[in-house]
């Protein structure tokens, strides 16, 4: 059982700047269908999906515009409409995804945990990922998908290990962050399961650039650690990270006839 999750919400949201000057990306609404469509902040959907697979304790990494997100979530906790434990910590400067995750080390302690960005959500795969992690107990489990433009993403070079619950299980041999000449078209989605080895790996990295989470994953592999991936469907990640992706996501959720926790 994985009971803890780290949600990173400290980025400046420069690609959505007209909106993120007003609100954090985590509060951008998606459409959830029940009897009728409802606009729901993406943070609600992320928390709901992680709750479904056993997460009860969350830490949100926030930046300088995080106050509205604190107010929103604390109101839901205090009014008992959100029954989880939530704490917050600050990333004072936007020094990268990996640096944000390092801020959660004391919260995580020695337990396995989810890491999840605030600007996207998986349409499926969470429960299969937890089951796979419990079976294999790797140092990291990545949720992966094939993309047509891999140079925009962190990508994984993998070895196929066969089918797993309708998806593909892969061993991750190497990772690269936004490579100009990608060796793979398999992108790393911004949802992960780690043990605490990721913290040790991130701390060893000496860089004058932003500290990317992929650097820590690469460090785990290079030190002999085990990293596996669950290769999902190509369209399994709904993003609000840039205007084009957000428009596609709103279109998809609005036009879907499915009644799910996402739509």
Structure, described:
The chain is an alpha/beta fold. 30% of the residues lie in helices and 31% in strands. It is built from nine helices and 13 strands. It has helices at 17-20, 42-52, 67-78, 97-102, 105-108, 126-136, 197-203, 213-222, 243-255; strands at 4-9, 29-33, 37-41, 57-62, 85-90, 113-117, 120-122, 140-146, 154-164, 167-177, 186-194, 227-231, 237-239. A nine-stranded mixed sheet has the order 5-4-1-6-11-8-12-10-9. A two-stranded antiparallel sheet has the order 2-3. Strands 7-13 form a two-stranded antiparallel sheet. Strand 2 and strand 3 (37-41) form a beta hairpin. Helix 7 (197-203) crosses helix 8 (213-222). It is globular. The two termini are 26 Å apart.
What does the secondary structure layout of this molecule look like, with pairings?
Blueprint: E1 4-9, H1 17-20, E2 29-33, E3 37-41, H2 42-52, E4 57-62, H3 67-78, E5 85-90, H4 97-102, H5 105-108, E6 113-117, E7 120-122, H6 126-136, E8 140-146, E9 154-164, E10 167-177, E11 186-194, H7 197-203, H8 213-222, E12 227-231, E13 237-239, H9 243-255
Parallel strand pairs: 1-4, 1-6, 4-5, 8-12
Antiparallel strand pairs: 2-3, 6-11, 7-13, 8-11, 9-10, 10-12
Helix pairs in contact: 7-8
